[in-house]
Amino acid sequence: MMTPLFLRHALNALMRWVCRIPEVREVLHTLALKVTRDPQRSELARARVFNVLAVSSAPEGMVEFAAPVPELPGTSLQLRLDLKDELSRQWYYWGYDRYEPEVRTLMWELVKDLPAGESGDVIDIGANLGYFTLYLGTLLRHRGAGTVQAFEPSPGVFARLQHNLELNPGLPVKLNEAAVSEKPGRADLFLADEATWGHCAATLVNKGVDEQVGSVNVAVESIDHFVEQNAVQLVSLIKIDCEGAEAQALIGAARTIERDRPHIILELIPRYDESYKALFSHPVYQAYRKFLITADGLAEHKEVFSSYQDRDWLFTMHPPEALVIKD
Question: Does the predicted TM-score (pTM) go above 0.85?
Answer without folding.
Answer: yes
